[in-house]
């Protein structure tokens, strides 16, 4: 189904535009404002990214893709670190609670940009365990130990993250949530400044 908005975008795409290597213009409809109170003045444009692998994976496979879907964490990182204008923001740290394949593009991105990377706890059979608990702990530690106020980008839709985001807001930080168009808890609304809807096809790991 083609929406009226899509038709307008199609018509605009026929007009000549200036190309930019560093800017990817996103669909404005993928962003919406949350109800969090105004944050303090940010020290810079850097973002701290927190990804709940299982929450994202099951959200996608339950609504959009089949169980063979795999996340390209490098591509996903490239998507969530952009602002509403499509400009790439520097990544100060990234925490993935889950299993990241050694050949994922995420590691190349991390090495090239030089940001801090932490992986979640891996239990029996190399399976990810207690993802949300580890992410909550990492968010709180980041807010207290890193220079701020800065921006948190949470890639999850679970209400369990509300207490951690409340701690961040109390210290003047900015909070963003990036997730698919389903599965975002309404409880996050008062704790988040901006919500972004992700398209799973933009960071699907394509098998060779």
Molecular structure report:
The chain is α/β, with parallel strands linked by helices. 30% of the residues lie in helices and 17% in strands. The protein contains six helices and seven strands. The protein has helices at residues 4-13, 53-63, 73-80, 105-113, 131-145, 162-170; strands spanning 31-33, 47-52, 91-97, 116-119, 151-155, 174-179, 194-197. A seven-stranded mixed beta sheet has the order 1-7-6-5-2-3-4. Strand 5 (151-155), helix 6 (162-170) and strand 6 form a beta-alpha-beta unit. Helix 3 (73-80) crosses helix 4 (105-113) and helix 5 packs parallel to helix 6. The longest helix has 15 residues, at 131-145. The model is unreliable at 1-23 (pLDDT under 50).
Overall geometry: globular
Percentage of residues assigned to helices: 25-40%
Question: What integer is the average pLDDT?
Answer: 78
Strand/helix succession: HEEHHEHEHEHEE
Summarize the structure.
With 208 residues, the chain is an alpha/beta fold. It is built from six helices and seven strands.
Question: Top keywords for this entry?
Answer:
208 residues; seven-stranded mixed β-sheet; alpha/beta; disordered N terminus; 6 helices
Walk me through the topology.
Elements: H1 4-13, E1 31-33, E2 47-52, H2 53-63, H3 73-80, E3 91-97, H4 105-113, E4 116-119, H5 131-145, E5 151-155, H6 162-170, E6 174-179, E7 194-197
Parallel strand pairs: 2-3, 2-5, 3-4, 5-6, 6-7
Antiparallel strand pairs: 1-7
Helix pairs in contact: 3-4, 5-6
């Amino acid at each position: 189904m083609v929406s009226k908005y899509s038709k307008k975008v199609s018509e605009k795409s026929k007009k000549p535009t200036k190309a930019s290597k560093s800017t990817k213009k996103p669909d404005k409809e993928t962003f919406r404002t949350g109800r969090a109170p105004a944050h303090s003045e940010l020290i810079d444009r850097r973002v701290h990214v927190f990804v709940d692998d299982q929450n994202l994976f099951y959200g996608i496979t339950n609504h959009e893709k089949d169980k063979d879907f795999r996340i390209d964490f490098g591509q996903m990182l490239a998507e969530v670190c952009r602002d509403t204008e499509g400009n790439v923001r520097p990544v100060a740290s990234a925490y993935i609670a889950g299993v990241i394949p050694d050949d994922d593009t995420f590691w190349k991105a991390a090495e090239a940009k030089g940001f801090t990377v932490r992986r979640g706890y891996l239990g029996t059979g190399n399976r990810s365990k207690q993802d949300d608990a580890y992410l909550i702990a990492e968010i709180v530690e980041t807010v207290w130990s890193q220079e701020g106020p800065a921006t948190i980008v949470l890639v999850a839709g679970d209400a369990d993250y509300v207490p951690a985001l409340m701690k961040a807001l109390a210290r003047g930080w900015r909070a963003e949530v990036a997730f698919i168009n389903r599965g975002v808890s309404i409880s996050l609304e008062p704790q988040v400044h901006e919500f972004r809807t992700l398209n799973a096809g933009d960071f699907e790991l394509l098998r060779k």
